[in-house]
Amino acid sequence: MEAFWKDVKFSVRVLLRSPGFSLVAILTLALGIGANTALFSLANGILLEPLRFPQADRLVTLYQHKPQFVYSSISYPNFLDWQRDNQTFQSLVAFRPDDFSLTGLGEPQRIDGIMVSANFFPTLGVTPVLGGNFDPQQDVLGGKPEVMISAGMWKTQFGSAPDVVGRPLTLNGTAYTIVGVVPASFHLYMQNFRTSDVYIPIGQWNDVIFHQRDVGMGMNAVARLKPGVTLEQARADMERVTQNLAAAYPDADANTRATIVPLKEKIVGDVRPYLLVLLAAVFVVLLIACVNVANLSLARSMQRAREFAIRAALGAGRLRVIRQLLTESVLLSLCGGGLGLLFASWGTQGAMGLLPEGLPRAEEIHLDSRVLFFTLAISVFSGFFFGLAPALKLIEPRLQETLKEGGRTVSGSRSRAQSVLVITEMAMAVVLLVGAGLMLRSLGELWNVNPGFKSRSVLFFQVALPPGTSRQSPDAIRADLRHLHDAVAQVPGVAAVSMQRGGIPMYGDSEDPFWIVGRPKPARESDMPYGLWYEVEPNYLKVMEIPLKRGRFFTAQDNEHSPLVTVIDEDFAERYFPHADPIGQSIVDPFVGKSTEIVGIVGHVKHWGLDDKINVHAQFYLPYMQIPDKFMSRAGNSTGVLVRSTGAEPLSLVQPIRATLAEMNSQEVVYEPHAYDEIISRSLADKRFSTVLLGIFAALALVLSSIGVYGVLSYLVGQRTHEIGIRIALGAQRKNVLMLILSEGTKTALTGVAIGLAAALGLTRLMASVLYGVSATDPLTFAVVAMVLTFVALAACYIPARRAMGVDPIIALRYE
Questions:
Q1: Contact assessment for residue 494 and residue 653, using Cβ atoms and an 8 Å cutoff
Q2: For a Cys-Cys bond, which of 13, 74, 273, 796 suits 710, CB 3.0-4.6 Å?
């Protein structure tokens, strides 16, 4: 330890004697280490940190699996059977998101809610901060209306009153009793689960089709495995359960299985590929930074060659010299790591504002002890990485030659070592630039995709009708909805309006099975094909500007008193009527229960996103006013509205629409307004975020690589001043000197580019899953990157070459 502290003290003095070198090296390392630390903090919070539930590794999520869907919602009767018949779960609970009209606490408002099983919070290990959990005996139809509220709602609506338990809360016109307050730290981060204001028992929902075995209604489940039970055992157990249900209920469950996924895996699975690509990219940036500092250290070591030769002549062993040099490099790296940690703190805070909406576990991203240990580890690694090359060069047994040279010239082996390092960082920069270029091209391809409609100037919002509307007669509900439509249509700036239920492109989906009249009816509903359905009004095509291909769209005459009609999309027509005219044919939707005549064909819409990778593509449209009477109560609760504005900014219509509807009925609430361009942009948020970060890392790699080329050539020119002076004195033209230096730099750069292109051909194949519309070996991207990097390298070579042209032979010869 005494020798170690002597090495540290000596290293500090050495670094202080070369402040320019030390500052450049520390800043270079700080950029590489800081970028790695910032991105690791993202990966740590999202991928590595355990979920904030007791024994979170025992939690799994369950879905129904049908041939058309990997993940689909569970029907409530199936869930109850799964809950009763399984032998591997300690507890199995259901949940589904919904929203509710809140009245009685000032102005009516629409709030987010979750329907949950009574044991939902105990299963997750969440303890209410006030009150208790639901009574399982009340989680049934006709049970006592109970509600749990979030800590945020407790604070904003009740002023954190300690006596809130037992107070009434009116939701959708029903009086609930508050039984508990959910802690503010509770988050589940599921795609279809959001931060909620209220939680109510799911078994009390009296929707007309929720208790049907063949309907999912957006419900999924979470379970806690019994102690000692493995995931594979649970899957085998649920295979037994679902097979028994398929035998008992062949019409609804013949092809239904259970998909079981670890809860954490389901939460972070979609972002994992992007984070892993970014982690690999930012590590390459660190390697490039280390290579740059290694080059600087090699250049500086030439000046210290005589010092270490004398040490060796006086008896210093190789390991002693290596230890001293590595101590200096690790100390330098630790200083860079400390500054990099500060950069990472700033970068993480800045990145939080750029994170895509809905990124799971974003609240858990911070600099913790694991991040600090990571920073320390990569700082020490970096110190050894860039310090080893100079150390090994300086202990070469060439004492007599070094002492005679007096440190005046540079050996060929050392210049070759520096050239190898430059080639290495150029190759790594090529890989990064190619990756960034592919991501950028992929994003560009997505933006150029035609979604099948025109989103510009389209506004989407939802309207909560007055409490009690859903309990009116179907005719009364239809009358209220017609008044709503007319009121919105009369708002200045509204060009067209359509109410909507069911699917809405890139925002929400609804799938139904169907069969074609005149063809053999499938024996079971589970054998039927599925299609996306949209319940819309006659102006829907005008609002969304979807092209009508053949036939007609709906008119005002397609109402509750007229024959049922439907319009299909061109994908539906191609799949199910490849050699026949679909116009005039009929299909049956089991939930409608009657045949509907196909009267038109419209263009296909990319419902699932611009890359549209989901299996269910066939789409059909139903007239809004032909919603069956038994389903009108759901439309009476809330409805979606799509508006095309006459101006460029559709959100400017929100306030006039709110004012108009408030005049019609003060209990109506407009909520969740979105410009449709925003919905499309949000669907690309993950790709855009990763592309921006990868682009930043690639730009940083490009800058560091060009600095590396410049630094090495500058150093070599300085070491070859005497040689260049002799060349000029003997008659060499200055342009010959320019070409000499440029050719050496260009040779090094092109070698690095060639190796990098070869490496990128193999490595970019790993990115294929996150690309769209562009090959992982896209020749255009590879060619552009090669040209850009070659040009930058030539620019970096030119400055030292120009300086070499200006060497005065008289001054150069005086060095002798």
A1: yes
A2: 796
